[in-house]
From TrEMBL:
Protein name listed in UniProt: CGNR zinc finger domain-containing protein
Domain Zinc finger CGNR: 154-193
Native organism: Streptomyces atroolivaceus
Family annotation (Gene3D superfamilies): Jann2411-like domain
Amino acid sequence: MEEFVREEAALPASPGEAEHPALALVNSAVTLPGGHTADLLGTPARAEQWLARRGLAPAAAGLAEVCATQLRALREQVRSLLASRVAGQPALPAAVTAVNDAMTRVSTAPLLLWDEKTGPYRATPHPTTAIVEHALAAIAADAADLLTSPDAARLTACASPPCNRFLLKHGRRQWCSTRCGDRARAARAYARRTATE
Ligand SMILES: [Zn+2]
């Protein structure tokens, strides 16, 4: 738990994550300086917290390891699509298929329901078994939106190695966090010092 708190602190939301759960998903695993990897979806309990914080699943949904595995699998596919978009390269067909599969596996349309007393209404049913499928569908739909919206032009990879997160650029800022910006500036200053010695 203590380690989890530390990893959370190491991963403040990067610009764009609040609007795009797909970006937040990709950024939920990061390579930290020193080669350590933080993964906010590393266990079912963490994955559950991550989804609940974003309103993508009810709290204490009772996620199993297989659910966390599905989330991590979609993360790799979406990561690959964002990387392709940033590099201006063709996408891996398997990644496109994975996003479309996640989006179409469950219906996200509110269904027509009929109450005996009050009459017709619409609601999205969330059976426990489909909680993760619904979350995956919502994230996949957001990935498709992100890649095709004007926001895609602002999508960029954090310019502070070894960080492998993405962000939506605002102005000249090209780091996912102040922590990464500080590290990049320190590295530049060090390079200047050693070049002049
Ligand atoms: Zn970064």
